[in-house]
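User: I'll paste a sequence; please echo it back and then give the predicted structure.

Assistant: Echoing your sequence first, then the prediction.
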Amino acid sequence: MIRSSRDQKLITQTNMPKELQEIVLLFGLNNGESHGYELAEFLHQNHFDVDLATVYRKLQSMERRGLITSRWEPSVSGPARRVYSISSQGSVNLRSGFADLSILHSQMGDLLNFAKASFKKHARSEALSSS
């Protein structure tokens, strides 16, 4: 598995919920239109290991459901390329998804804090019982 510069594991397409893939792709389009390859790079830069074929399948699905739009952009040095943009419905879904992620982040923070305290308590208990 590829690791980031901070030696963090990447989130792979097999352990990344499909809803999270959509939110991340919508976030990538939130600042303007982009090509599928650029969106795949955006995912990789943000520690998501998703292959290009998966990105294009997800983009097609999102376009069919009205979350994004696309157009063909002519190229001077090769075939035309598809350019994707977030739609108004996609913006609504992005805001909703971001709110859901914020709640999940808070809940996971609480759980991790509880787990850390529990580990410390058990480590102290084990240290006392072994002495």
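The beta strands are 11-12, 34-35, 48-49, 68-73, 81-86. The chain is about 60% helix and 15% strand.
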